[in-house]
Amino acid sequence: MMDLHTHTRYSDGIGLIRENVSWAEKRGLKIVGISDHIHFFTPGMFSRYVGEIRVVKEESEVVVLAGIETNITENGPDLTEDFARELDYVIASVHEWFREGEWYRYLEYVKRAIIDENVDIIGHFGNIFPWIGYPPWEEVLEVIKLAEEYGKAFEISARYKVPDLDFIKECIKRGVKLSLATDAHRPEDVGKINWSLKMLKKAGGSEEDLVFSELL
User: Which of 46, 52, 57 is nearest to 11 (CA)?
Assistant: First the structure.
């Protein structure tokens, strides 16, 4: 199986890339992605990051992918094409905080990321709904339809326990791909995807509904 959302010392994680990969091997994953936060990188540091991932990939028993987590801002994802072209995938997540009732702003941010050609996966969709309010289903459905149109995926986050079952079912129904993710910031948390996998199966999904399914 897979874990496509993990962090290392290159951003706010505490482990090395090799340590994340080692735990992925111990947990029997087939794919592990390194996806550190983009705002920690200078161009030189980014080159070292991608280079180290490639080296570890050659030494590993699992497929190791080079990713990044970009921030979705009011103007869209803070990612340059120069960075994107060096990566296997890009996760885009909202990290800003909104006031209660501003779920509509959150959805607008997500839509900006969905139409961005450099983005592949939307990270932890809806993790702040308990604080800002839950959108009407019709509004959420528009987001899923947009992802279907633009070929984007959503992660099933074991850390935040999102998105909900109805959302996942709708993605599967419409052929919108999904990823399994821990958002691990410690190596020993890499691969703890039980909740994500359970939700995928409960929604009637299978490996074919996941991104990079051809590598599983």
Answer: 46
